[in-house]
TrEMBL record:
InterPro entries: Homeodomain-like_sf, HTH-type_TetR-like_transc_reg, HTH_TetR, KstR2_TetR_C, Tet_transcr_reg_TetR-rel_C_sf. Transmembrane segments: none annotated. PANTHER family: HTH-TYPE TRANSCRIPTIONAL REGULATOR RUTR (PTHR30055), TRANSCRIPTIONAL REPRESSOR MCE3R (PTHR30055:SF237). One of its GO terms (molecular function) is DNA-binding transcription factor activity. It comes from the Bacteria. Keywords: DNA-binding. Residues 14-74 form the HTH tetR-type domain. Residues 37-56 bind DNA. Pfam families: TetR_C_24, TetR_N. Gene3D superfamilies: Tetracycline Repressor, domain 2 (1.10.357.10). This is TetR family transcriptional regulator.
Length: 206
């Protein structure tokens, strides 16, 4: 069972907890979870090592906190960006734009969310995977709606959804700010790539 927080006298300061999380996120992304010690995190934050345990019961609990926090924030932002109901084609475009732009804006969170799944213990892994499935389900619903209406040419919705998410997330491996294209321009290219892959014809402009 994960030790999420140690019992102390009085509530921990939120700012200290946030600082620990920010430093841990940066170090885990830079060097990988196994190579980072709690002592190093404490030194970067400017507190004693024991002070971390006032907020997180273990390094594993800290990793789960980061990954769960990322996925929960992702789901909240997605639901705000892609309203339920409506035209499946429009919703797919909204999903693609959101996914590309959000992931480019959170490179460390995204890197850890994918690369450090291997570092999670069973309980934490199950919790994070449940949130990942919830995110994937949002896309599957859009694809299923388009399939029912004959808007999308899809053979297997679950496979299509997983393939699209992998393709969209891959933008974080090559895109760098300051290049030929802005983030928004890249997102629009991805929208066209995805819709064309599903057999959607572009609406001619007047």
């Amino acid at each position: 069972m994960l030790k999420s927080e140690a019992i102390i006298s009085g509530p921990p300061k939120a700012s200290t907890k946030q600082a620990i999380a920010r430093v841990a996120l940066s170090l885990f992304a830079e060097r990988g979870y196994p190579a980072v010690s709690m002592r190093e995190i404490a030194e970067r934050v400017g507190i004693r090592q024991g002070g971390i345990y006032n907020h997180f019961g273990s390094k594993q609990a800290l990793l789960v906190h980061l990954m769960e926090g990322h996925m929960r924030a992702l789901l909240v932002a997605l639901d705000a960006a892609v309203p339920k109901g409506g035209n499946p084609r429009q919703r797919l475009g909204q999903f693609v734009r959101f996914h590309v732009l959000y992931h480019l804006s959170q490179p460390d969170d995204v890197f850890i969310a994918y690369m450090e799944l291997r570092s999670l213990e069973p309980e934490g892994l199950a919790r994070v995977k449940e949130l990942r499935r919830a995110y994937e389900e949002r896309l599957r619903r859009i694809l299923e709606a388009g399939q029912r209406l004959g808007v999308f040419a899809i053979t297997d919705v679950p496979v299509q959804a997983m393939g699209l998410i992998a393709m969209l997330t891959g933008v974080t491996t090559w895109y760098r700010d300051g290049g030929r294209l802005s983030r928004e321009a890249v997102a629009e290219i991805y929208v066209k790539m995805v819709t064309r892959s599903l057999g959607v014809e572009e609406t001619p402009t007047m």
